[in-house]
Amino acid sequence: MHINETLIRSVVEQVISQVRIQSGAQAIVSSNPARGHSGLFDNVDDAVAAARSAFEQLQKRPIEDRKKIIDIIRRISISQCVELGTMEMEETKIGRLKHKIEKLKTLGEKTPGVEFLKTECYSGDRGLAVIEHAPFGVIGAITPVTHSLPTITGNAVSMIAGGNTLVVNPHPSGRKVAAEGVRRFNEAIRAEVGIDNCISLICEPTLETAQQLFKHRKIALICVTGGPAVARAALNSGKRAVVAGPGNPPVVVDETADLDLAARCIIQGAAYDNNLLCIAEKEVFVVNSVFDAMMEAMRRAGAVQLNAPQIAALTSKAIVKVGDDKHDAACKDYIGKDASFLAQAAGVSVPSDCELLFGETDEHHPFVSVEQMMPFVPFVRARDVDHAIALAKKYEHGFRHTAIIHSRDVRNMTKMGRVMDVTLFVKNGPCMASLGLGGEGYLSFSIAGPTGEGVTTPVTFTRERRCSMIDDLNVVGGITNL
Length: 482
Ligand code: NAD
Prior knowledge:
binds nicotinamide-adenine-dinucleotide
């Protein structure tokens, strides 16, 4: 996960200046690449037809060719991470450049591939049953602005490993880098494997094109990665859906925790890409007996503490009322912005390399209940660990996404694990350790909580098919005399 920052900065500067010289323009993403091939389409019907044709070709190829396609996606994602990550940063204007680059590299390196497809076999007296994992066909993928191309990279690797092709409806604010990445993937796949449009993309995505994808009769399965509205839309679409929905991951710190480790982990997770990760630490409940010591540990680890008037000033700008019921929501102008930008709104000046702001609030503060996606994290006093766990449960909102505890007491860990009932439960690490980044396990940026698939893999995007041989091919046992 760690790339030398000075090196990145110099490479990034070179890439930006080269592309600007070549294009003679300020924008480094081509605004109107050719459509109708290389995965780029103006409408849903054309995109689905092209992906369907690619699927039919892929079906006739050996699994080795899926592996070749995945290797191409990995190669581009890794070797062009600086250029593509810079494009993503310039287009979306949220998060941190270093992490935009790192995410592409990480997804390219670590998303599981065809090796994940394991055939199961049952043999016994009555013969042999073989269970294989078959593709669905063309999958419709909806991707978020928080990780536009990284999500496409991860989805493409998993879905193609399962033998599928896909049509992507990207977030409109990340559509250009999505198109550029998809064009590069497809051109290389066409040149090296001879199939175009394995990953097709709607170049001007809207809510209507997403709906058309949901309803399209040639889309066999949908996979959405995003917030509450798209999760609801997918669940109501009438089509089989893999839904990677929103989170609001709480952290509990009890009296047995290593507070310095907890502080370092909270900063690492919550500050990553300015808190855009759906798994990122969003609010912290600390037992009263160590609350002050935990705040001190946060300061020692480099986070900057805001006082009550400063938190109020930040909140008045960064949290807005939306909808008929006037509920609290994160203000778009502040999502994914640097800590120094948030500090300015709070009336404080912090060094530009400050990664995270934090401060004490009560549980009713909007920064506790809202999935803020900003590098300011509220800390709330809890009477004891049971109170902290109850608050964590309440403010996770039943998303069953991610929760974290810092503790050395296994009973407290067990209790919280049972109560939270989340897809990812992390003990004594930063959130990303749950995706195999500093912990065990494997990676995906589509974590399907509501529909239960968990961290998606190639197997998520396959149908089980069974072949049964009756009374034969079992060399052990059997009811016939041979
Ligand atoms: P978003 O919900 O605004 O958009 C996500 C995608 O859904 C976009 O492509 C958008 O155009 C589309 N969309 C939104 N409303 C829709 C509707 N009613 N019908 C059809 N399509 C619709 O989210 P975002 O700001 O791009 O991303 C951040 C959100 O995504 C956060 O809530 C975060 O927790 C979540 N997320 C979840 C995971 C996961 O693995 N569970 C991963 C990344 C992000």
